[in-house]
Design brief:
This is Family 1 glycosylhydrolase. The chain has 436 residues and is an alpha/beta fold. It has 16 helices and 17 strands.
Length: 436
């Protein structure tokens, strides 16, 4: 049983479309992972990282209704299993196959849930999942800012995308648990805060600070705030759709609240409702405290990075600052169970949020695109070495019920899985009774 704090990195499988669906941005292709995947996994092992955020690209794996091309997933996941790396499988990262079109499609939740079920059956040793990455960001970039996928810019389009994305995530959790009852879901969601620039901006900032919670409220079956209830109802959500989420609140017991924090996550709000970047005013610890107070779930810092700048130490200093924030909230009682530098390698076109294809290399990785380690990679490797034995020793009573791939069929894991199966079955019966 894996009982230590989770140090992680990730290999991004973003696949949004731009240019009205004519251009797909495939980060795995642009960053060379299809060619260097074996080297990438070797780099993960060299760092001492035990956990990898990873998944096959949805658009080339889900090729039709209940039709799948598992070739790439079979090869890469077999290697992860052989290496003993624990994947947090990221099934949908900002885009869908062309035949689904976009997140306005009401068929998307069921199509995606069937895909998640098929994945869990095919790879039963996988325990950790992020079914849909950054649900809030995906909906707002696709359907409110007009940057990706459907490229719409209305409240109704945003609510439509969000309810479909959240429903797909919830259905996927149910289907995966039916296959692997001890599965754990780590929601990687952007942690945001909106600062009013002056008194006239207080109202729009309050609305934005309420709206930032919508994806997790729905996912965890938490009743939304009254103003947000009116907002979603006024923009196309039905009472039946809303109660679908409330009836499945027990799924939160299988969840770790993964939250992402970048220097761009805090915003200055003008009276007009427009925003500009604020930098790290509150910081990860304060904003995470707000999310934890709302959901009361274990926390994992699931994404952060900063570009290696002109001085060469900017990313190293940001790593230190984020880690200091993690230690602070952990020491004040928030159950933080993991930390992630995202991602393993530099990314392409992150400086335009993937909404333009400029082939711009963004030096935010632990390694560059030639797979040479960056200073932040050395610093992260040392951080893991320094802290990997210290954090578990702070409490020998608190453990994570997570198995390494090679432990899948061992007796303690089987006993835990059977207990989880009974609990899940009882909760499903409760859901069925409440829906009647």
């Amino acid at each position: 049983m894996f009982t230590t704090f989770m140090f992680a990195t990730g290999i991004e499988n973003s696949i949004p479309t731009i240019n009205n669906g004519r251009t797909r941005i495939d980060e795995m292709e642009k960053c060379g992972h299809y060619k260097y995947w074996r080297t990438d996994f070797e780099r993960v092992c060299e760092l001492g990282v035990q956990v990898l955020r990873y998944g096959p690209p949805l658009y080339s794996t889900l090729i039709g209704p209940r039709r799948y091309d598992w070739a790439f997933a079979d090869t890469t996941l077999a290697e992860l299993e052989r290496c003993g790396i624990i994947p947090i499988v990221d099934l949908c990262h900002f885009g869908v196959p062309d035949w689904i079109e976009n997140f306005q499609n009401p068929d998307f939740p069921e199509l995606f849930a069937s895909y998640a079920e098929a994945f869990a059956h095919r790879y039963p040793w996988v325990q950790l999942y992020t079914p849909i990455n950054e649900m809030f960001v995906c909906a707002i970039f696709s359907a409110y800012y007009g940057w990706w996928n459907e490229q719409l810019t209305t409240d109704r389009a945003f609510v439509t995308a969000l309810k479909h994305i959240a429903k797909a995530n919830v259905l996927a959790m149910e289907r995966i648990l039916a296959c692997r009852p001890d599965a754990i879901f780590i929601q990687s969601e952007s942690s945001e805060y909106f600062h009013a620039e002056n008194p006239a901006a207080i109202k729009p900032a309050e609305i934005m600070n309420a709206r930032r919670f919508l994806s997790l409220d729905l996912n965890y079956g938490r009743r939304v705030d009254s103003e947000m209830y009116e907002y979603v109802m006024d923009n196309g959500m039905t009472r039946e759709e809303y109660h679908f989420f409330l009836e499945r609140s027990s799924l939160r017991h299988h969840c770790i609240m993964g939250n992402d924090y970048y220097i761009t996550n805090e915003h200055r709000v003008k009276p007009s409702g427009t925003t500009t970047a604020a930098g790290d005013v509150f910081g990860y610890d304060e904003i995470t405290r707000q999310y934890y107070d709302r959901y009361r779930l274990p926390v994992m810092h699931t994404e952060t990075n900063l570009a290696q700048g002109a001085c060469g130490d900017e990313a190293v200093n940001w790593l230190w600052k984020q880690w200091a924030n993690v230690l602070r909230i952990r020491n004040t009682g928030v159950p933080v169970v993991g930390f992630t530098w995202y991602s393993l390698t530099d990314q392409m076109d992150w400086d335009s949020a993937l909404r333009e294809e400029n082939n711009s290399v963004c030096p935010v990785g632990l390694y560059d695109l030639q797979r040479n380690i960056r200073p932040v990679g050395d610093a992260y490797k040392q951080l893991i070495k320094d802290w990997c034995d210290v954090l578990p020793a702070q409490s020998v009573c608190l453990t994570l019920p997570i198995a390494y791939p090679y432990e899948y069929q061992e007796a303690p894991i089987l006993r835990h899985r059977e207990q989880a199966r009974r609990l899940f079955s009882n909760r499903q019966n409760d859901v069925q009774q409440s829906s009647h």
